[in-house]
Amino acid sequence: MGIIINQSAKNMLTTYVGFAIGAANTLFLFTYFIEQQYYGLVSFLLSAANLIWPFMAFGVHSTLIKFFSFYKSKEDKDRLFNLVLFLPILISLLLGLIGIAGYRFLLDYFADGNALVQPYIWLIFIISVATAYFEIFFAWSKIYFRSVFGNLMKEVFHRICTSLLLFAVYFQLITVHWFIYAIAGIYVLRALAMALYAFRLYLPKLNFKFPRNLSVVLKYTSLILIAASVAMVLLDLDKVMIEYYLPIENVAIYGIGLYIATVISVPQKAMHQITHPMTAEMLNRKDRRGLAELYKKSSLNLLIISSFIFILILTNISQLYELIPEEYELHFWVVLLISLVKLYDNFLGNNNSILFNSDYYRIVLAIGVFLVVIAFVLNLVFIPILGLEGAALASFLAFFAYNTSKLYLVYNKFGITPFTQKTSLVLLLLVLFSFGFYVWDFSSHPIINILLKSLLISLLYIFLIYKLKLSVETEAILKKIFRNKSS
């Protein structure tokens, strides 16, 4: 348990550091150091790669984690490792051949609108393969309980390298053309570093025999492929479709709003590392009472924290956009709708852990596939009419339906909900703070205004959370903080 807690704490720290570096890149370095259309191009290439890499990985990164402990002998483990290594190569080659066959179609497709993309289409394939194998080798390290290096590479490494490259463009050490190629090179370098680390942990013997229970392994792999694909498509479909309907610089504008809203999801990622194994254990013990309590506690605590972040974002968004170039104009409804999506995600608490550790994950996958189709149709309808706000509305409706279906499924199958009497109080505070502080500002420089307003909101929000005794866990943390300060 000690190594798990230790590594979870380090992973949480690197996640926050990576997010901070990413925020600096997204809001300032990209916006000031390169032209808007090239910022949009980079955002599009990475989003397109995120749509493709789960198919190349074919779910084997999750399969390795699930089945590693199932095989006892070294020979069986080596067979599993070899399947994990070589199956994605075959899938990538197949997809690569399809890409080559349709390359002329792709060139013609981008020639109609954003011809800037044409010379860089093949980089999507490179980034996708590199990302797929990075995730595989990251999973490789996880089964040996060595996740810190992989998390550092995933959250921090590529963002620091991107910062350095942006400064290189700014000081005219490289052109923006080489910057884009170097971005792809970062993902390749990251995958190679992760591979070397994984092979140091364990180097399997080359063996082309299939592992035992191959049909079971491939069935699970296929289901995980669908799950990963659904998650990535719902996250990045809107940016890819924006590129088709609107000038490519709009991808950059939308990406900034999306990144700002995504800050709300950080607490959920951090808590998931703790609640996921606890949920799995309770399901195995059939501890329904403990599961219901954890469901409510995780939902309430995440809602308290994410509502606080939501309020800070919403009430400071106008001043924040005053700090970046004018061409990146504020699209308030984009930030609001995506922020509501992330807030809803947090409200679900450990809902995903309950479903994906139970026998009902197949139902979730089926719902997810259906909602990907719905999201595609909604983007087709709304983007030509409403532009960037249309993409945000499509994502909001798709995720709202997806999250609501998961909420109902847990209630229907387990008879539990995340709602408590205190949930409504937190939501009331959310509404009052959001409306009250959005329309009120200090008459000063945007940075000073953000700092003063955030300080005032923080003090008042924390005071009310403490006095209303909305969460035992939050109250205990606050008491400890106040005790340390007074001593």
Please give the share of residues in helix: over 70%
Radius of gyration: 23 Å
Q: What does the average pLDDT come to?
A: 84
Reading the helices and strands in chain order gives HHHHHHHHHHHHHHHHHHH
Uncertain segments of ≥5 residues (pLDDT<50)? 1-5
Count of spatially separate domains: 2
In DSSP terms (H or I, runs of 4 or more residues), the helix count works out at 19
How far do the termini sit from each other? 31 Å
Multimeric organization: single chain
Got a strand count? Answer: 0
Q: What can you tell me about this protein's structure?
A:
With 487 residues, the protein is an all-alpha fold. The chain has two domains: 1-245, no CATH class; 247-487, no CATH class. The protein contains 19 helices and no strands. α3 (60-67) runs antiparallel to α9, α11 (266-285) runs antiparallel to α12 (288-321) and α12 runs antiparallel to α13. The protein is globular, with a radius of gyration of 23 Å. Mean pLDDT is 84; it is low at 1-5.
